[in-house]
Amino acid sequence: MILPRMIRRLKDRRDHKDSEYAHLFEPYKGDEIVSLDCETTSLDVKKAEILSIGAVKIKGRKVITSDRLDIKLKPPASLSKDSILIHKIRASDLVDGIEIDEALEQVLQFVGNRPILGYYVNYDIRVLDKFIRPQYGFGLPNKAIELSHVYHDIIKWKSVGGEIDLRFDTISKKLDIPILQRHTALGDAITVALMYVRLKHGSPPSVA
């Protein structure tokens, strides 16, 4: 799975080396990370339509909530009662939503070539790529940082021979980070950002 994505990324970089998006393929040399989350109609990438996108930037120990992305999209036809049970977002909540093309442009401008952090971040990237590639001819080339992997790698030495619970709510509780506006894209993005800062710059969490 990794090799084809690497090959495709190299091809995208070559094909767009002279385009206005060439900078997205350059190695990132700054010190910021973007925590990103998407709320969708389905957990199946092939069926998923994007309802909202939230993102905030992290710089060192700071989560810069003043510099954020909080996008609502127009409600898709696939928004059903069953999907509402997953994300708690109704069509009436998206009455002021924007078109997907405008949303994607805002995401590319906000994220740039910074690393993307998330909880099950590969899902969010794959869903975005499903819409970005047909529109722009490339997928997101950004480095991905999976929060649950960061958490696992930091506490695994405390759980020799034991299972590590990587559920979102469990990680939040272990890190003593409140869950902000659960099942909203911006709320989850901020919560993930706070958990990441706690993991990287705070004391290792207990596993009791």
UniProtKB/TrEMBL annotation:
Superkingdom to which the source organism belongs: Bacteria
CDD domains according to UniProt: DEDDh
A Pfam family: RNase_T
One GO cellular component, as annotated: cytosol
UniProt-recorded name of the protein: DNA polymerase III polC-type
Alphabetized UniProt keyword annotations: Exonuclease, Hydrolase, Nuclease, Nucleotidyltransferase, Transferase
GO MF annotation: an example: nucleic acid binding
EC number: 2.7.7.7
Cross-referenced SMART domains: EXOIII
Native organism taxonomy: Bacteria, Pseudomonadati, Pseudomonadota, Gammaproteobacteria, Oceanospirillales
Residue ranges occupied by any Exonuclease domain in the UniProt entry: 32-205
Enzyme class (EC, first level): transferase
InterPro entries attached to this UniProt entry: Ribonucl_H (IPR013520), RNaseH-like_sf (IPR012337), RNaseH_sf (IPR036397)
